[in-house]
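Researcher: Here's a chain I'd like modeled. Treat it as a single chain, no partners, no ligands.
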Amino acid sequence: MAGIHPRLQQDCLVVGQFPLSHLLLMRDANYPWFILVPDREDVTEIHHLTEADRQQLLYESCSLSAALETAFHPDKLNVAAIGNLVPQLHIHHVVRYRDDVAWPAPVWGRVPAKPYSEAQLAAVIAKLKASLTDDVEYCV
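Model: Modeled as a single isolated chain. C-alpha cells:
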C-alpha cells in the first residue's frame, strides 16, 4: 500500500482510515480542515484510480462532507483536489465560516497555521467521531 507524502505527514495528523483513504486533520486550528488520501501507489489524479476506487473515493468524500456539515455547521464546505505542492492525490475538505480569518479567499497561505491546543484537538476529533460513523477505523 501507499505511504503518505512527507509534506502531508508534516502538516497533518492521521486520524483514521476509510476502506480506501487515510483520513488526515490539517494541523491548523484556524479551520476544521480534513484531507482524504487514497491508499494507492503513484496516483496523482482522480481519473488515475480504477473505476471502483473512484466510486469509493466519492463515497468517502461525501460521507466526510456530510459529517462535517453535521458536526461543524459551516457556511460553506470547500472540497478540492489541488496538489500543486504535493503530487500524491489528496482531497481537501475545509470547513469555512463567513467570519474565519481567510473568508472569502482560499485558505492556502492566507494566514500562518495556528497550532491546536490539546483541548481543541480533542474537541475537533470528538465532533468528527460523533458525526462520522461510516467505515472509519480511528487511530486517535
